[in-house]
Amino acid sequence: MSKILVTGAAGFIGFHSAKRLLEDGHEVVGLDIVNDYYDPALKMDRLKQLQPLEGFRFIKLDLADRQAMPALFREHRFDQVLHLAAQAGVRHSLSNPHAYVDSNLQGFINVLEGCRHNGVRHLVFASSSSVYGANTRMPFSVHHNVDHPVSLYAASKKANELMAHSYAHLYKLPVTGLRFFTVYGPWGRPDMALFIFTKAILEDRQIEVFNRGRMERDFTYIDDIVQGVVRVLEKPAQPDPDWSSDQPDPFSSLAPYRIYNIGNHQPVNLLAFIAAIEKALGKKARKKLLPMQMGDVKATFADIDDLQRDFDFRPSTPLEEGIRKFVDWYRSYYQPTGKRGRVSNLDSAERTPAKI
Q: Of 37, 38, 100, 153, which one is the catalytic site residue?
């Protein structure tokens, strides 16, 4: 069994991934700053699910801390690192750009340096479907050029991919990047569309539907994401002997570096997504149709052929099943009466358009 650092362990994907790795018998050190980008109480409740599990230790730490991060790596000598911590959100980057530099750039270089100097066997890091930016060629493929981001968040994730490749090339550090496509499920982020729509419908409030619903997303259920993450983590990237510098393929390299999409390969129209939420709730939504938001893209659609070929894996959870599981969790977590009768700490999320 391995000793694995999971950054962003109090976050949505980090929590589920850490839980799965612990259940598989690994030792997990979970790192998170537990900031207030969204309700810290939700993050702490995720951690409460992990703390009783054998082999888990939590450390509250800022990725951008240039003294504490090297000390963390020296003390623990991790076998593998699953780097999921980041300042998330496309729209948040419009008003808080420096948060993305601190976490996504400074934080990531600290992770890379820690891996480089301490014999980490494999670094797996979170990228995003946002890197496809202005691309309209569908489905999005890891073999496509991604040099036209339309948000600072996307640009920071593209920068992570470039930084990771340079370390793989210079120091032979095996690195794999995963471009996640709209992840949803129980314990999900309050700034995501599924969470905000569910809450608003239950409270008889309007939901904001951008581009008048003419948007598509490759929604991917959290259990599928975690299964993919675990399989990738177990198989360190290898140099590609067939890679050509005359016709460079962004997917691979002569260095031990790979990039994969993890998506459902089944884009869903936003109005159909809302209809599935309505069905799970047994209640109709009141829709406010709005124009396109700055920094958004109209569609995402993942080509996952490489993921399926290399790891014999593809997501399989139907959308209606995944939404039903989220709604069941939401209703059990936020009771109709009692201390969670209303999600009182989500005022900032309610003022922010839902991320899809």
A: 153
